[in-house]
# Entry
Amino acid sequence: MSIWPQSVEEINHEHAKMVKTLIKPGKAIHTTLSTPQLELVHDALGIAGEAGELVDAIKKYVIYNKELDIENVIEELGDLEFYMQDLREKLGITREKTLLHNMEKLSKRYKDFQYSDQQAQDRADKA
# Structure
């Protein structure tokens, strides 16, 4: 038997109460952030925003059958590179280290570098 309420109203009320209790207050976050942390947040938000703009460009092409705006795609990819480069630099990670790590991961996931849906689902690199 569930300890949680069963009615829609009670579920909504209890969930809202749980969120209010568990969410870290903005003031508590604000008072503990350093300038370097804020700069990392800026980069991460920039990456998320630019990725969203890239997704939107692809969505318009695929879903709405608009001509692909390749100039916009290039612009968004450049913006992503901008924020990723700053993030890597702030964390002391080179682009080459990132690429090598990705290559290692994918070589474990895809035996003989051959894609298969099964290997994508199995994710041998996570074992």
Summary: The domain at 36-115 is CATH 1.10.287 (Helix Hairpins). The two ends are 34 Å apart (CA to CA). The longest helix spans residues 35-62.
